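Archive entry: two folds, one per protein. Generate the first.
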Amino acid sequence: MVKPERPRTWLVWLCPAAVTLLIAGPGVASTQPWRDELATWSAARRSIPEIVRMVPHVDAVSTPYYLFLHGWIALVGDSVPALRAPSLAAMVVAAGLTAHLGRYLFGPWAGVSAGLLVAVQPSTARYAQEARPYAAATALAVLATYLLACCLTHRWTADHSGGNAGPGPPAGRPAGWGRWAAYGLAVFALGFAHLVAVLLVAGHAVAALLTWLRDRDGRSALRWLAVTGAACLALLPLALLGGAEHDRQLNWVPMPHLGDLFRAPGSVFRSAITAGFVVGLAALGWALRGRWGWVLGLCVLLPTLLLFAAGSVVPLWVTRYLTFVVPLACLLAGAALALARPPAALAIVLLCLALAVPDQRAVRRSHDPDQIDYAGAAAIVRANARPGDAIAYGPRDGGRFLDAGMAYHLRGHLPRDPLVRSSALQRHSLWAEECPDPAACLAGTGRLWVVALPRGSDPLGAMEKRKAKAIRERFVALRQWSLPGLRVTLFTARKPA
């Protein structure tokens, strides 16, 4: 029997990377930024000292991402596609690296299949189109796993022009400290991108342990322990700052139940059907692919279980935090597909793509579960505002970021905000502080725009009572617009009796 021709080395990673760009790229600007992205923009547009001053107050664990995006905005601007471009690039890199790692561990067809499976997942498109650090963490998780594989298989370079002929990468001389330092830096960068993603080292610990048991030589395990310990120690200040802010940051997260754990794959993959598809193939790869099958399986399973366990104690169970395990599950699935003929493996990948189409469409409709139309509200204000108009929000606090949404979409045209006592910038926070006497602060205002969450028929129903009372006493509603997730009302000052 003639063996199928092996794809060229560069095609193994280039094809999945290109397919990821083709699938995840279209629509990158079609959905407006949702509240998490507005928080990103609000922080990243500040100066570097102002971003650093936020650290003791809010979102410390996201500070590295905000600093990176600050520099990016300075270069290319803050349009929607510009804000999301780094995430798109990170997901393209993640797919290519997954293919490269699959080739290194299991052969070229495993790499191609794994990379293509990453490319067709709705979660890949979803987080490639969001200005948050999840895509970067995903790429760094694959990079760290690849560097670990290079160290533990005693092979630093993956320049195999002829491809792997055996069941795994060949062995050579033990990896030196320089190579292990590169792995440690990748783990540090992973935690810097998203602290929760460091849970991946639980699976990596299994790889180091299995290598020790196989080789009866503890040098690799001890070097893994040293560099991983150093990386985690360097991340400790960030973890302590994040822990101190935990109650303020994640007080909206409910405690998970056992059913949430079983529903996690569908939530992580952003598609129950493709999650079942990949998890089933990954289980097969886990069973059939020996030591590295076990390692990759535990790199997926252990972070999930650890996050669930932690979330049962403190509010932490947010399934998008586990996005970084998706390529590793796809890698196991690709390793299983490589046992079939290449045409059959490609047909299965295409079937997964076809099954994902409805969810691919869903992730492009809106990122916001509340469907808040910030852009529509801003368009109404821009079209109808007059010089001297003012604006107020109901509510200003909480996680909806109504003021940031209007500030983003009305750059240069935002009405003055008379109720602000201390801005978010002045407070080194994401939230402004309002004046304690709304009636006095609203004095002299002729027309007032109120952008509020809809609560019944009252346009001020979502607003704090004292602020709503001051507006009712001084203003009368002139016109009202209803939008998805928002109500915009134009008030005019009451005429003196």
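Generate the second and append.
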Amino acid sequence: MNTLAARERRWRIGFFVVATVYVALLLLDLLGRAVAQFGQIVAVVFLAWLLAFVLAPLVGLLTSRTRLSRGAAVGIVYGVALLVGGFLLFYTVSAAGAQVGDLATHFPETRTRIIATLQSWQSSVSFGRFQPDLVTLFNDVQRQAGGLGSSIAQAIPSVTVSVVGGLVLVLILSLYMVADSATILAKLNRVVPQRYEEQAAIFERTVARAFGGFLRAQVLLAAIQALLTAGVVIGAGLPYGVLITLAATLAMLIPFFGPPLALLPPVLATAIYRPEWILPVGLLLLVTQTVIVNYLQPRLMRDALGMHPILVLVGLLVGAQIAGLWGALFGIPVIAVANVFFNYFVNLRTIEETLEVDTEAILDEVRDEAPDATAEQLVALAAERAEAAHEEARATGEPAPGTVSSELRASAEEIRRAASDQTGAARDMKSASSAVQDSARSLQETTGELKSAVEELGGERTPGERPGDLA
């Protein structure tokens, strides 16, 4: 009977879990559709938060190294950022616009160069019977680019006004976020219940490390690629240097796929305009990119994300599928935050379920060894220590110091199972007792009705009648 009741409980729990997951997916779909209606507002707020995230450390550094107030430090940092960013933006846009006009003017000559280069490549590239027609492919790309360029040219005025207005809103919102960051964080912390205070601190710390480290790493890699491409442009004497450098820099900002894409603009420009430089330029870019990808980038990302490359790729693909370009750019730090919480709860469960160790003792031991470690780091170290003690106990057959025996663990499991069965039996007994009480209550009501009926019958008899005369 107890086995049947336990099986029914498991089926009910499984049904509730599946139903909960299904309803959660429906709610997420509805939430995604609702957020999509306010996509532009969400993008503005998100960009403002990112800008505040980048500039907040500079404000903190300035206030700690000088006697300036926080308001003065915010004003200085934002003033310098506005001047430098405005100059770079104005110079890049004006130079790129001038070079685009020059490219359009001399495009027939450039097109001849491109076709000649593709024909030389096509004659030397062959895959058995398959020989790619690079010239036809270029003509198709040119036609599609021409249509896209005309539509972009028509939309430039409205897009420019929208971009400028969005940048102003981003700047103002980020300014308020940095200036009132302590007040905003304090109000957000009050919303979180006290029992989740530790998880909220982990979330705040993880988001700061993941997004901050990711942004710093991407900006540093893009700056290195910009300097490298500018050096190649100047050394080889390539035309349209701003366009080539801008294309390589923007490509480098794309996670995972950015480094190989960033090689294409300088390599293709060298092959078209300076073919005699293609070998040294290609070798220099390949060696430098190999060092960046295999040495610098993993070290920058390890401290910020701490994820396996498979998770990085999954975060990129999932983010691109859900949110397009923004998801591809920032899906990786979001996965990094989720990965920290997943590991945190897994480590907690490992400690709690390893009955061969004293949880409090091992946490105190790890806390004494690493006093500066964060909560998630302490839990990870304690989980490793618990697993080591568990393996040692299994190998030796004896409990390690400060641990409990495997017999006690088995007894505890039996006690847990018996307690679960007793809880189920008590629940069944309670249900049966409730049914008996309902039956007694119903019988009492029926008795009361019969008594009322008898009294009514007694009232209808005449004074000389006896109960037997009614027959």
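Annotation attached to the second fold: Confidence is low (pLDDT under 50) at residues 400-405, 465-471. Residues 38-116+167-191 form one domain.
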